[in-house]
Design brief:
The structure holds two protein chains of two kinds. Chain A is of the alpha+beta class. Chain A has a single domain, classed as 2-Layer Sandwich (Alpha-Beta Plaits). Helices cover about 25% and strands about 30% of the residues of chain A. Chain B is built from 16 helices and 13 strands. By secondary structure, chain B is an alpha/beta fold. In chain B, helix 6 crosses helix 8, helix 10 packs across helix 11 and helix 14 runs antiparallel to helix 15. Chain B has an eight-stranded mixed β-sheet, sandwiched between helices. In chain B, strands 5-6 form a two-stranded antiparallel ribbon. Chain B folds into two domains: about 350 residues, Aminopeptidase, CATH 3.40.630.10; about 140 residues, no CATH class. In chain B, strand 5 and strand 6 form a beta hairpin. At the A-B interface, helix 1, strand 2, strand 3, strand 4 and strand 6 of A face strand 1 and helix 1 of B.
Amino acid sequence: MAEGGTRPKRFFVTIVAPSQEALLKLQRYDFDVFAATSHMTRDGEPVIDGLLELDQVGRLVEDGYQVLVKHESSARARATTETVEFDQWLKNMG
Amino acid sequence: MPPPGYLTAAGIEACIQWLANTYPQICQLLPLPEPSVEGRGIHMLKIANGAAPGRRGVLLVGGVHARELVPPDCLASFAFKLCAAYSNATDLIFGPQVYSNLDVRLVVDVLDTFILPLANPDGRTYVQAVGGDPWWRKNRNPNPALPCMGVDINRNYDFLWSSGIGTSSYACSEVFKGAGAFSEPETRNVRSVLDNHPHIVSMMDVHSYSQLVLHPWGDDDNQSTDPSQNFLNPAYNGVRGVPGDVAYREYIPADDLNWFATTGGKVRDAIAAVRGTVYTVEQGIRLYPTTGTANDYGYCRHIADTSKRRVYSYTLETGLEFQPTYAEALNIISEVSSGLFQLCLSSLCVVESVLAGTSLVAALEDLRAFRREMESTVAGRSYVRLLDRHSVELLRLVAADEALRARALALLEAVTEVVQTRHRPQPRSVDPLVVDAAEGLLAELQRAGSPELAAALADLRPRMAYFKGKSVKEGLEAASPIDLPAVPAATR
């Protein structure tokens, strides 16, 4: 994603691929999927988590993937709200 | 009261500087050769008491992916607690999991623990900045003439970099692999650490998320039967990267796979001991192959260049999200720290530990060569595996009993003298008295050890007789292997 301008909202999702081959083909989209989360569910469905914009979700759905939208990303962002400098950290480490 | 939040990038740097200033006897701040793309200095800690030659090293890396907030804090906290426990002569405590001060001393006195908590400081700074992107993953390379910034450091190593498997040549991709292998200073820094500290034997690259302990390979399924199917063989270019097929599987020696499974299982158990979280030990590929990663790079170095030492490399994926609440992060830090300490313990070698600081250290290279020769025989391999499997317990027993250590040292001295003649036209034979001494030492360890160790040594002891009056080579040829129990499925 290029920087600058207002960024569309992103969502944490789980992508269910129709086959293992289709899961591998996700690479062609250059979407933000998390390789380490890929696994086969108990029902034998290949799945992987990712962070997608809504139009990306739409493209995948059109192409036969199921996409479970879990959270809007800002609801999970703690990078700026839960931070401390070292002095405070050290004081609390006691 | 626990800290109320994640350390800033500057806070991580301040933390390791403070540790080096506060514990100068055991903590050294080592600058890495290259600053980040934006010019930030990058440092790692070396935690060690003493610098006797022949020590082993462990490398712990964090903060490669900017949005993964837990790993840098975890490594900073781990370093803090390890230094404090050693300096205050206390146990190392992670919730209900307690490592004795003897273990702490073993690790600090015998092992060099290198901790690089924040490999990508530019990325974390951007993630934590107001107006930054909390989900930024890559470094902050401006990529002149390309549409987007940043290179995925963990796709920039030279392991099958050209293959494009699990990577992208598109600069806006989160897995953009860069202009070339090692194009990024942050990647070159890790290579430099491994090059300049060739005694490093294991490595953990800490990431988030998925509760996994991953080992090589990441590009394709593993196999241990056809060495020609390996990442260096151009005949397989274009065939790799499809899990589940039979066209190509990446070769990994069975003994290495066994080490990864056994040690990964111990790390997993150490994590679970803190609050019951069960991580999965698994091959890196899962369903989605990758290349250019630190995990595969660390392990492949000795295959690509046989003059390099084997580094058992893992990736640890902490937790279940990139940025958990800090209250949950503290729980994750505690359990993962337990796993990291277990990796340190598992990386110790009982022989090297006993010899540390003695004149016999000079013979270590030859002893390592002998170990490799042992591993080429069925019996020898089983003895080496037995030692590896029980190394931590053996170390504890020997470290806790000065008389036992003295006996072990005397025995190693006698054995080394014989081993060093093994390639001569007329090698020395093993004195029956030395065999008796070995048998006696094993009996003592058997008495003091756990039921598992006792059973293993009960199997091993009678096999000492094969070496009586023979050269070590003849002894190994005559010896019968130990039928080691398989690694329990629960620890795989």
